[in-house]
Design goal:
The structure is a homodimer of 459-residue chains. Chain A is an alpha+beta fold and 459 residues long. Chain A contains 17 helices and 18 strands. In chain A, 37% of the residues lie in helices and 21% in strands. Chain A is globular and about 70 Å long. Chains A, B: It is an enzyme of class 1 (oxidoreductase).
């Protein structure tokens, strides 16, 4: 545990005034995300307002070898915010300016603290949108740092595909810009992709340039109920394999549907369900719908129930995005433990069957939901964080689920990141490539001050 | 210049027998690509047949600090193959096995020496294809190493988006696998994207796992002639901005059309032309065609001339892919100097106008062609490589074109890479981020033996 030197405290306090804080409540809030991981509070919090200020903070911390942890909306699910060695939390939420939008080039540049909902509200009048939507209203800096995705990834890709350029403060305070606004480039190492998904361990992202998309001419959304999970998943796999360009294809199990009904005041049939959304010109959408309906029918799916107005559609997806909260709120004093894996689609049925078997023997309430078009699904447990037996039980189930996904050629996390929660599985998945990751970390952050203890084990 | 130690020569010769060679012709061939860059032959060539053999060669060279340069099909355009410090060329062309194809998961794994045409011939019967198509019949290892793209990138992305996983031999001989087969992952640094585009400077790619696509149900291709380049480019920009999912949208200027007609026995009207291809279900294609035709008409485009049979279509794209050879063959003893830049589409008209102005004052024959849907275009000069005045003249034009593209927010190379040819522009484009690239290079290849003198200046 680093002890915060008095000189650093004084320097930050003098420089940032009441934007520097050591109050207990603020520190506790900045030391945890939304999941079961207990808070490990930083020693102090600074609210930065510019890239240059972030650079100043990092320089001051580097001089004293004090850890620096970036904070956006606090929606991490895998312990990314735990100050396991103390240090300074750099809160970027006030860096929430939308700096530039180009409707001509379908791109924009935002400060890291802009949230996805803020951006889409801003874009709507211009007929544009940014598709990446993790359930939470996360910041775009945080989404870049964890390589986030969400329901639209099956059509539009993840943050990996949709970040064009970044402004980054390096561990010694230097400021660089990675990538550029051209849609493609073969000029140099792909530093953008190196920082996307680096979880704050190589530097702090302060600005993000993103691809945008025109709002589709036609949008249709529908739910389809299936007699069994296998038939629902079988339909999803067939849609992917035929290359039908669905915009969303979400699986929800009966437990999730019940929770969502209660939380969002809906009355969906509590059965295994796929939720679809179709984007395109009217003819293209008609074609997609007909193809998907035929596949669903082949797999025993019931009639499509359409969300025909924009309001109905928004209500549906809002309910889906609140699934995590819906599940956790079903049990008093519970915290959510949301694990996610992703496998090649051909292995999806086997992997989910295995997970269901594990859950059948687990005493903690849990549901399965997922972005099945990508082979990605989540299990959300509503766990009592004060009950060690429950935590141990969930950890054991999680371990078996993750190792099964890796054995099937998949990954230990499709979109939540490693944080502290999945460090144990990185080598099981990547083998000796982890040593190369450590070499890169050591070269870029030789003092080890950037979000220590996340992704790679502490040395 | 490294002198190849006798002990290394003997060790490689003893181990690889007649797959190790020092003949002058073979060395000269391995020291250059297809462009104007003069050959800088390696000291020796080894034909590797397995990843483990590549690892052995690298270990032997590392022990003697002798450079190692990977060689695939030899189609580089920016001097990537020049052995500027001598060393050993590792020829991967015999590593041409297609190791695995999954129609279910739409992916495959191939050895690095498999060419794109070989792969697509193999896939055709399974109803699959791999879309990335630089003009040349390059190897997939080489295409990954230069972050190649081509005519389909506007719809399907580049190698950046289509490589899932790599097997790489590191500079000390260790073998790692990056990434995985899951469509998305948030597990660890994105090593796959770090090696894609690294031009052999961080390791040697020996196997590549790629995304595949189902052959579209409907394919249509058409040419459209325009009264002026501005109107052709204006149409392309409008198509992009409306998000019409064209599969190909290629610009060809009158000089290129004339060369292609002569080279490929066609009789296209010699005017500024866009070539389109549309992929999808029949209704989706009908919708795309109608939208694009309307936009072309608004911009003064003539009627679409359709390539209606697969044979006509193949002939058209084959001619387009041979454009480089077509231009160079128009002038005796000429070599091609193909430069490429890429800018945000909103800047495309201005950039191309500037380039045309430069070419109007240039004595060396040159044409403009490009993947304009991405904002990417090429100028191909047919230059006399023995005429220093011509080389200087082209270099000056190239410099102005590149600096203009960078000033417009673009990149000095959209798809050809840096090699030796564009080292001078990397810092102009990326600023201090180049120092971070050098830090990464130093950390991964501390001896500096991997393709030295490419991308980053020699230290």
């Amino acid at each position: 545990m680093t002890i915060m030197p008095e000189a650093l405290t004084q320097a930050l306090s003098a420089r940032f005034g009441d934007r520097f804080s050591r109050t207990e409540a603020l520190r506790a809030q900045h030391g945890q995300g939304e999941s079961y991981h207990p808070s490990a509070p930083p020693d102090a919090v600074v609210f930065a307002e510019t890239t240059e200020e972030v650079s100043e903070i990092v320089r001051l911390c580097a001089a004293e070898r004090v850890p620096v942890i970036a904070f956006g909306a606090g929606t991490s699910l895998e312990g990314h915010l735990s100050a396991v060695r103390g240090g300074v939390s750099v809160d970027l939420s006030r860096m929430n300016a939308i700096l530039r939008v180009s409707a001509e080039d379908l791109d924009c540049t935002v400060q890291a603290g802009v949230t996805r909902e803020q951006l889409n509200t801003w874009l709507r009048d211009q007929g544009l949108f940014f598709p990446i939507d993790p359930g939470a209203n996360a910041t775009l800096g945080g989404m870049a740092a964890t390589r986030a995705s969400g329901t639209n990834a099956v059509r539009y890709g993840t943050m990996r595909e949709n970040v064009l350029s970044l402004t980054v403060v390096l561990p010694d305070g230097r400021i660089i810009r990675t990538g550029g606004r051209a849609r493609k480039s073969s000029a140099g190492y792909d530093l953008t992709r190196l920082f996307v998904g680096s979880e704050g361990t190589l530097g702090i992202i302060t600005e993000v340039t993103l691809r945008l998309y025109g709002l589709p001419e036609t949008i249709s959304a529908a739910l389809c109920a299936f007699p069994s999970i296998d038939q629902a998943i079988g339909t999803a796999i067939a849609v992917v394999q035929l290359g039908i360009p669905v915009a969303r294809m979400e699986f929800m199990d009966p437990g999730l549907i019940a929770a969502v009904n209660a939380h969002s005041g809906l009355s969906l049939p509590t059965t295994d369900t796929l939720a679809f959304e179709f984007h395109g010109g009217p003819e293209s959408v008609r074609e997609q719908v007909a193809q998907v309906q035929a596949l669903a029918q082949d797999n025993g799916g019931h009639d499509f129930s359409w969300a025909s107005t924009p309001e109905e559609r928004n209500r549906l997806w809002k309910a889906r995005h609140n699934a995590f909260y819906a599940i956790v709120s079903r049990r008093q004093n519970a915290r959510g433990w949301s694990s996610d894996v992703c496998v090649p689609v051909s292995a999806l049925s086997e992997c989910i069957r295995h997970t269901r078997h594990l859950l059948a023997g687990c005493s903690v309430p849990a549901v399965i939901l997922g972005h099945v078009g990508d082979g990605n699904y989540h299990v959300v447990f509503a766990v009592d964080p004060h009950h060690q037996g429950e935590l141990d039980e969930v950890a054991a189930v999680n371990k078996q689920m993750v190792l099964k996904a890796i054995a099937l050629g998949g990954t230990c996390t499709g979109e939540h990141g490693i944080g502290t929660g999945k460090i144990a599985y990185l080598r099981a998945e990547h083998g000796d490539a982890v040593d190369l990751m450590a070499t890169i970390k050591q070269a870029i952050d030789p003092l080890g001050i950037m979000n220590p203890g996340k992704m790679l084990p502490l040395s």
